Please model this.
Amino acid sequence: MTPTTIIDLGRHALELTLLVSAPMFIAALVTGLIVSIFQAATQINEQTLSFVPKLVATFVTLIVAGPWMLTLLTDYIQRLYESIPSMIG
Model:
């Protein structure tokens, strides 16, 4: 294995990690922004008011985008296992 191969493997793994985690992060970010605007408008400073909606949004996003994320991960793992013989020899 050359250093270029190792760097490519690491780069692809990081790209996949960012791609898989992005929907949940975006959902939590948007939900947090909406809840923050609501809290600023009503002057309610309850901690659970910001935590629970983010948690629910993250779970809903996981349910909706879960099959897509699982497909990406399994495809990556299959390609990785199939490329093992070419990496060794």
Notes: Helices lie at 3-42, 47-82, 84-88.
